[in-house]
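Workshop exercise sheet. Pairs work together: one partner reads the sequence aloud, the other fills in the structure field after running the prediction. Swap roles for the next sheet.
Pair: D.N. / O.F.
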Amino acid sequence: MTIRPITITGEPVLHRRAEPVEVIDDGIRELVADMFETMDAARGVGLAAPQVGVGLRIFTWQMDNHDGIPPRGVVINPFVSASKPVVGDASPQDESEGCLSVPGESFPLRRGETATLTGIDLDGNEIAYAATGWFARMFQHEYDHLNGFLYVDRLQGKWARKAKKAVKANSWGKPGLTWMPGVDRDPFGHDDEDEYDEDDVIAEGGHAHSEDELAR
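Structure field:
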């Protein structure tokens, strides 16, 4: 298994529709193993193949949930159907997303509260899951990646403007930019969390991720 560089917004593979997987062969199995390794190193809860520079319809996840869905998994050639988002402005406290391909930034986005996922696993078996809450959000986020969209593309109003300013300020939005999990400093601050001692972690609630960091 190999940790792969994560593409940053502006890389063309992130902005076009990914191609279906035709055959699950050793190359696909190696890619999936590398995606898990990369996702873990980046401390993400989801990772789509375009985020490691491969335009195929695959995403992985690692996320606890209350929906009876395996907390760690992969789906190939997925289809995600979500409920309509509730009308209104997204809450910066409760509905902010982050993305490994927009490293270090987070912005509020309202999504459907439920989502269904169908597709096949690495053995070619059909899977079908119904998710709620943040697990449903993660499915929608990763599925967007396979259709050439980042979550910042869905932002509206002042949040869309702030996202565009962040992209410009970081000199993103052009091909060839990546960051390397485990080598580059974690853009979401988890390296700083590692510097806490055990008592500090317990004082902070004993959890490594807050909800606004979940969908990446």
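Discussion prompt: The first strand starts at residue 6 and ends at 7. What would you look at next?
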